[in-house]
Amino acid sequence: MIATYQKIMNDDEKGKRFLELIDDQSNIQWGIVSKLTALISSEWKSEDLKNELKSLVENHTKITKELNSLDDNGSIL
Questions:
Q1: Alpha carbon of residue 41 to chain centroid
Q2: Are 14 and 76 contacting, i.e. CB atoms less than 8 angstroms apart?
Q3: What is the mean pLDDT of the chain?
Q4: What is the mean predicted confidence (pLDDT) over 35-58?
Q5: DSSP 75
Q6: Residue 36 belongs to what domain range?
Q7: Is 14 exposed, middle or buried (0-12, 13-18, 19+ CB in 10 A)?
Q8: Domain membership flag for residue 10
Q9: For the chain, what is the domain count?
Q10: Is 76 within the bounds of a domain?
Q11: Rounded mean pLDDT, 39-52
């Protein structure tokens, strides 16, 4: 579904979406670092932190896949 939507996007829309995704990805990466730091401090004992970290990694993966699908010509937009 993502690929179908992106085929009808023009280059300007793709560029804007790319920047939004990069911003989201950056925020998630900082969240991952924060959760990992807290998890290490808890000596890996916090199930809540483990679940939050798992969710952040899953979201990061989704964004990365969408970013890759925006770049259909193998260029950096």
A1: 25
A2: no
A3: 87
A4: 96
A5: S
A6: 18-69
A7: middle
A8: no
A9: 1
A10: no
A11: 96
Element (H, E) at 18: helix 11-41
pTM of structure: 0.77
The DSSP H or E segment spanning 24 is helix 11-41
Q: Which residues contact 4 (CB under 8 A, 6 or more apart)?
A: none
Burial class (CB in 10 A: 0-12, 13-18, 19+), 63: buried
Which amino acid makes up residue 21? L
Q: With CA atoms as reference, report the closest residue to 76 among 1, 26, 19.
A: 19
Q: Closest by alpha carbon to 28, among 66, 65, 55, 1?
A: 55
What would the pLDDT profile of 24-44 be if each residue is shown by its tens digit? 999 999 999 999 999 999 999
Percent of the chain topping pLDDT 90 = 68
CA contacts within 13 A on the Cβ side of 40? 6
Residues 32, 56 contacting (CB under 8 angstroms): yes
